[in-house]
Amino acid sequence: MAVRIAAHTFLFQQYGFDQVRQTDKIADTIAEAGYDAIEWHHTALVGDDYKNRLQLAQRNSGLELVGVSQSLPLWNQGDYERIVDILDDHAERLSLFDQELTSTISCSGKGSANRNDAQNKHLITFWTEISSLFDSLDQKVTYQNNGDTLGDLDNLTDNLEEDVLALSPNLHALHSAGIEPISYLQKHGDLIGSIHIRDYHIEGGRTIILGEGDLPFDRLKTTLDEIDFDGDIIVDLILPSGTPPDTPILDILKDSRKTISDQLGY
Description:
The chain is an alpha/beta fold and 266 residues long. It has a single domain (4-264), classed as TIM Barrel. The chain contains ten helices and seven strands. Helix 3 links the parallel strand 2 (37-41) and strand 3 (64-72). Helix 2 runs parallel beside helix 3 (50-61).
């Protein structure tokens, strides 16, 4: 499969877009910026008309649909039933698209250092159930790090088999956790189904546009070739803290897409 360059839609929420009422506008903007595909935030799945709405936006824009992201406290035993209900509904809704899609799921709340052993073990057992759920509906699921420490991620890779765990590393989130992103990709290349990319400064903090920070694109390009990467590169932009949403969102997406083309050759 050829590498697709997708955009995640969370940035639009920072600009005040409603992912239900402005589905077409969001998709059209991403397509105009030159992307191949789109990954929706889970709020786009609400409502009885979600399938027709997303398919219409996809058809009119010409974008392919990667899937839909979700974030839940998967370690929380006391919240298990509620989370199961959410993921059952999430997976079922995607299965009705009659195509294999991918949900990226991150684990929200406290990290492994603040969990007890039972909570860490619960996450491992629960992820196995999640993988089985999506597989039973001919859907795919990947784990996206979001605030995870190296201990959190090692808990997954050390205790889950390769047929259960696929990863979607968020490069900025890795850096923020003190994990060198390129080395992590090199070590776990066989598990990586997609990559969420956002630029950052070495001293901390993220940039508005790809190419404005210190993400080592030259090393990233070499590593993607070394691990034979053929998944999705998902541009997952979030405005830096305190930055007003006054730069045109189309310009942000276009300039970031150009960086992908210039630096990675896609």
